[in-house]
Amino acid sequence: MFCLDDGAELLYGPARSDRSASAGGQFGDDEPATAILHSTAAQGEAPTRAQIDTTDRTSVSHPGAETTKKAGGFDKRLLLAPIVLAAIVLGGFGAYRYLAPSNTGQIDSIAVLPFENRSGSADTDYLSDGLADSLIYRLSQLPNLKVSPTSSVMRYKGMASDAAKVANELGVDAVMTGRLSQIGDNLNISVQLIDVKAGKVLWAEQYDRKMADLLATQREIATTITQKLQLKLTGDERGIAKKYTESSEAYQLYLKGRYHFARRNRDDFNKAIESFEQAIKLDPNFALAYARIAEAYNQMPNYPYASPMEAFPKAKAAAERAIALDPTLSEAHTAMGNTLTSLDRNWPEAEREFKRALELDPNSATAHYRYASEYLISVGRTKEALAEVERALELEPLDPNMVANLGRHYLYDGQRDRALTQARRAYEADPTFVIARLLYGMTLNAVSQYAEAIALSENALKDDPNNQQMLMVAGYAYGRSGRRADAESVIEKFREISKTQYVIPSFVAVVFGAMGEKDRAFAELDKSIEQRDSWFRWAKVEPLFDPLRDDPRYKDLLKRMGLPE
């Protein structure tokens, strides 16, 4: 089907509203609430700029509490900022530091919440969001640490969240939160790491750094967190401090690219690719940026924002370059596996790439999900695919794309009742989420509930009459319920759209098949083969092709794709 098969969708929420600030620190008066002691260092130990006493402040309050500042001294009522955020960018000269006693219990899981952007400009959201995302990315490479994915934590963006509540909702032991301010080339970052079970702050620090120090600081923070969580790293796990690029400017462009990619509209896809390409110009050896370019080009035909033959060769070239630069990069192998199914139809090699990606990063929900949706479903191994998707959801339980697509995998495995129940739940949870709406419509058609599919699609087409996916849902339902004239009107609409943009030929074929127009349907499916129609990868199991499946020509199409009968 036409799921968006990335499995790592970032859901950006509204920016937090500014709060009025009383006279205080440089970036406002609501710094992390702590009690500043004049001297708490152990004998013989050089005190840090400020030691934090958390004896009476073991709970976490929301970051809106106001503080006052004594003349000539540090704040004594600085607010105890919520959860310790990690993505942090910049490391600091002169920071508040606190090392919790070593008797803390074992922490096996952590949530890194989105940073609060205190710069007063949405233009720096890419920093506050991107740093958290990058820290999550690094920590997720530790096999013995469960890290809540970006898709799960982004719902807390702009919210004053209680650490204990967040930990309970996400099922984690520790929470990290932080704030970021940028003035010119100067960055100020405040972070906290909270042991929710013990009810205490494990570590807090404020960094004042230059933008050029962003990369070094992020690695420093990730390493510090592992120390505070008392994690012992093996050689293979020391990738949390891996240097993906030496260029701070290239890294900032990379963060901008990630920010735009997560928004998933046509303009932002193009901006994402542009940012990644600019990063590569500054650092031609930036393998992760090449991998993200491949990821973007792999996704664009699904919407469709580009034709497959325009996008997939670019995806393959970028993935090949990423692997050449860094063969240990899981994202690069995942992108290559995707391209091998979409462009080359090289199924054995695609599986090797997906397995290599999972070997390099067993905690990659995206790799598990794409292995299922791009390869296992395509070759008809539906039970294995379902198991991989369920594993991906264990890693990213709140990812809306995966939640919606779980129903699709039930459907392909022949569990139609469970598929409909799951599709309906995903849609009702957020009727505005286009993928959930699409898959619900597809499932309604698959279980012959055509009236419901028509109502759903017609309502969606009122707001977006050129939506190819919902046109296909409507056209199939019209054809199967005998409304031939309406089905023909959908075909005509596809012709009209094709004058200005790429039209997915298998969508048109589905409508023709529902009408009983097999010759016209197979003419479109021939185009699907030639044009590397990404949706037709699922031809072996997709129920909407059932009206055509018994025709010998259909088996020939599967052979042309190298798929088993």
What distance lies between the first and last C-alpha atoms, to the nearest angstrom?
Answer: 19 Å
Helix content: 40-55%
Assign the CATH architecture of the domain at 35-243. 3-Layer(aba) Sandwich
Can you count the helices? 22
Describe this protein's structure.
- Among the domains are: 35-243, TolB, N-terminal domain (Rossmann fold, 3-Layer(aba) Sandwich), CATH 3.40.50; 448-565, Serine Threonine Protein Phosphatase 5, Tetratricopeptide repeat.
- Helix content is 50%, strand content 8%.
- The protein has helices spanning 125-139, 150-153, 163-170, 214-228, 248-263, 266-282, 287-299, 308-325, 330-344, 347-360, 365-376, 382-395, 400-412, 416-429, 434-446, 450-463, 468-480, 484-498, 505-515, 518-531, 546-549, 552-560, and strands spanning 35-37, 50-53, 96-97, 109-112, 116-117, 146-147, 174-183, 186-195, 200-210.
- The strands form two sheets. Strands 4, 5, 6, 7, 8 and 9 form a six-stranded mixed β-sheet that branches. It has a three-stranded mixed β-sheet with strand order 1-2-3, with no helix packed on it.
- 55% of the residues are buried.
Give a quick precis of the structure.
With 565 residues, the protein is of the alpha/beta class. It contains 22 helices and nine strands.
List the helices and strands and how they pair.
Blueprint: E1 35-37, E2 50-53, E3 96-97, E4 109-112, E5 116-117, H1 125-139, E6 146-147, H2 150-153, H3 163-170, E7 174-183, E8 186-195, E9 200-210, H4 214-228, H5 248-263, H6 266-282, H7 287-299, H8 308-325, H9 330-344, H10 347-360, H11 365-376, H12 382-395, H13 400-412, H14 416-429, H15 434-446, H16 450-463, H17 468-480, H18 484-498, H19 505-515, H20 518-531, H21 546-549, H22 552-560
Parallel strand pairs: 2-3, 4-6, 4-7, 5-7
Antiparallel strand pairs: 1-2, 7-8, 8-9
